[in-house]
Structure formats: C-alpha cells, structure tokens
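Slide 14.
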Amino acid sequence: MSETFALHKPLKRYNQKKLYGIALFILSGLAFATEDAIIKLIPDDFSLFQIIFFANLFSIIPILILIGLRREKIIFFKKNIFIHFLRSLFGLLTVLLFTGALRNISLSQTLTLSFSAPFFMIILSVFLLNKKINYYAIVGLFAGFLGVFIILFPDFGSFQLGSIMALLSGLTYASSLLIIEHLNVKEDNPSIHLYYIFISTCLMSIFIPFFWEPVTTRLLIQLIIIGALYGIGLTLLVSSLRLISVYLIAPFDYLSLVWMILFDYLLFNISLTSHMIVGMLIIVISGIYVSSESTKDI
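Slide 15: predicted structure.
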C-alpha cells in the first residue's frame, strides 16, 4: 500500500506538470489571437514590415518584466548561436507568411491552411527527434482538423498565392516549435527570448527604411499593445514547451480558431452559424480527449 502511494505522488505531479504545460500553450494561443485581432484593425495600407518590426521591438517589455520577476539570469554569447538564428529565422518567416496571407486571402482560409502545422510537427518530430507517435495525439489531430473543416468549408475557394503562403507558415511554425523544444534542453528562457527578439528585429530593420510610413498616436498605441501581447505569447509558448512535448500539444493549436471566431463576433460583428458551433465543439472536445487520455500512459 505504501509503495503504491509512493508511486502515485510523483505520477500525479507529472500529470499536473503536463496539464500546466497545456494550459500555458492555450494561453499563448489566446495572446497571439488577440494580437492578430488588433493587427486586423490596422488599415491595410500600413506597412506590413513596420507592424512586425514594432511587434518585435515592443515585445521586449513584457519579456524583461517577467525575467525580472523570476530573477532569471541573462547570459549571452552561448554556443548555440546558430540554432538561435535558425529559430529566429523560422519564427520571423512564420509571422511574415501568415500576416501576408491575411492580406491576400480570407482569414478563414489563412487559419485553416496554417493549421497544417500540427501535421508538420508530427512528421518532423518523428524524423528529426526520433519521437514515437502517440495514438491519442493522432486521433486528436484528425478530430481537430475535422472541426476546422466543418467551420470553414463554405469559405473555401481557389488555391491562390495567399493559400501557399498560409500553408508555408504552417511548416515554418512547426519548425520553429521543434527548434524551441531543442533549445529548451540546452538553454534558459531569457536567452531563447532575447536572442529571438534581437535577431528578428535586426533582420526586419534592414527592410524598414524602404517601407517606413508615418506613425500616428493611435497606431503607436496599437503597436505597443501588439508587441506586449507578442512578448507574452512567446514567453508562455517557450514555457509550455519546457513542460510537455511539442507533438502532444499540437491538437490544442486548433483552439486559436475558437479565439478568432469569438473576436470576429465581438469586434467585427460576425455571427456564429450552426456549422461554426458544431466545429468549435469538436475542436474543444478533441482537445479535452487528448488531455485526459494522454496523461494516463505518456
């Protein structure tokens, strides 16, 4: 009896750790979705490069605040600088491709095609990280993707350049997550955050002089909020990947669609239809199913 209790306590802590990681990942998706909703409120004629540049620049504020609250040390010039560069490059490409797709095709098409990321994560983690595919993760992925199609099926049209950009953003996002998981083994959170912000901001600053436009007070406030949410989302994302495997949390990426549907309804007066409600329920239920089943034997 005592041996059973002794085994139960660490197992319970392990399951709580994974659930906490899932919760952080879901909150990171909410932060990113809120950021996207505010970006959508910015006029289309405002420079895309400028938005991303300021988002990276202002994201340093919440990251430094969190580092201070946690009293974490900031260490630069580590051996994994090339891996940091790759993570920054893939992260920046994801933002550019996704935001660019939004300006060429509908929001629903962009989100759906970018949700190819979980499938890319599964494939890449198997071949690059020698991960074993979990049955529950596969079931959750296909169930979640089914919910996405139920919601968005009426809006699909021809395959355009924006569609290719959205699909590629799924691949670059999956690559970025896998690199973060690799860095989490060797690096601390501050270095992962700050290297990304520094490298991506430097890369974007190359293009800024060619696309600079005047910034009004209202736009500046929006850009500061976007940057803050971006920094919070990055912090929550990296923290979640310290607690749980990247392929196991892949189905919860579909919850971003739920957040965006809610923002569409609240901010843009887009009412929910019956097929949207059914799709949302499938996405949420599939996420709960994966969460409850995966904690039993993984």
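Speaker note: The first helix runs from residue 2 to 41.
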